[in-house]
Design a protein that fits this description.
elongated
Amino acid sequence: MQLVKTYTPEKGGEWEAALKERRELRVKLHQKFEEDRQELSMLKKHLKDKNQSKDEVERKMREWRSSRRNTHPQPRDKKQLVIELRRVLNAKDEAEIKNSLNRMLITIKNRNEEIRKRLSE
């Protein structure tokens, strides 16, 4: 946050809001992960208890997995943005530092949106 306060103080509120939202979304995402894990263990338990046929449980597990496949948002270019920020910090180019910080903020907001979508599914 020190870099934001130094180079883009006008965006400090946006950064704080985006990071606060990120923390809240990560807690909710972890809760959803735990629910999914319990659901999967229930399916496995049904198989062990023989309450359902093996084919039935396998079908449900395939459906469960396919419904969750590719729903986890990926930090696509986070590493690239950090490398770029380090480069412009070393060059002490204020305009580029501002641009890098703004791109990072946009990335954080986009990632928050992806997490919100995943939680609503």
